[in-house]
Amino acid sequence: MRLALIVFLVLSGLMPARAGVVESAFDRAIAQFEAALPKLQAELFGVDTAAYRDALTLRNFASRHWGGRVELKVREGSSDGSCARFAAFVRLPPENGTMSLILCPQFSTEGADSLRTLTILHEMVHVVAGPNECRAMAFAAEIERLSTGAVTPVDVYWQTNGCDGSGFRRP
């Protein structure tokens, strides 16, 4: 059984030590979303919360935005290309019903558990609802607020992406 897990992790593109960090980040993101869920409506900032939940927990969901079923693959990125600028990113749009969430080396930075959780919450918005950075950050911040009572300060990110004039608001 252990060998099968190692083979799966290698074939899925994530080494075992890194896979633990990734699964922990997903577990924390799921816990925060589930804690916030009773306070959410069917849609928040244009994000279908049922599709978001399925994408986050099952990594497979029915998408109104993309027009069909989408399977999410989590992949490890190298330190170049988009990973030179981001901790994670989503390849958009889906290809043949599959979308990839790329986790870059800096995603696994020691001591960054809360940022990893926020990153998963944020990137999953792109998976479900498309590329709008302001929507993704507003949604992730609202999930944080509803589940923990606190919000990670992201002022520089918010301003850099021109979110003040976007129509989306942080809590």
Automatic annotation (TrEMBL):
Keyword entries, A-Z: Signal
Signal sequence residues: 1-19
Designated name of the protein: Lysine-specific metallo-endopeptidase domain-containing protein
